[in-house]
Known about the structure:
By secondary structure, the protein is an alpha/beta fold.
Amino acid sequence: MTLHPIRLHVHGTPEEMGSAAGTRAALLLREALAARGSARVMLAAAPSQAHTLRTLAAAQDLDFGAVTFFHMDDYVGLPLDARQGFGNWLEANFLSLLPGPTTFHRIPVDQAADEAAAGYARTMGEEPFDVLLCGLGVNAHLAFNDPPADFSDPRAARVVELDAVSRRQQADEGHFPTVEDVPERAVTVTIPRLLHSAHVVCSVPGGAKRAAVTRTLGLDPTPEVPGTALKLHPDVDLYVDAAAAPDAETSRG
């Protein structure tokens, strides 16, 4: 198992963090479009990504019509028009900001969960993503791959039961009135499929995520801290604000 360093970038505010992360993502997309004329991007849907996505959307020189977008997870059991649906969140907070038509493949949450996961795996195909835009959960999950996460899952997408920490996070962030209102299941893209990307840009603001950042940077890859799987990828930039930044000793590690 070859390990790679995660490049840590600390910025004072979430806005500064998002500006830097979005600028990096835009640069990587320019390079992909210049090389092939098209690009594939995997998106995370969460308030932590808002500043990064706004910066990316403002890159006026990018041909977003040549970019195919995917997203990494969505709930099972919500109404199709529910504002908490991650596909709906991305439509409202990112895709609607882009000029002209775009290609966005949504997880088909109107289907039975197993069918939705299998269908989305087929939709993603086997080509790598040019850029993965991700965050970390309070429990350091990647997408809804909660601990203990499978770092060698042969599937590209699967149905998962959300753990208590992930469900509490969704309520604490104000997406649902109570934990009981948070769906218990989701379709998630697996860690191996997420990491089948040329580049990873990870945006993690807020003090609630500081422990996840510290453990991700400080530990060798372990399923108990899914974020540590990022060390298996050769090109990862982790952007945090001051509140999420680990201590200096961990940063050096």
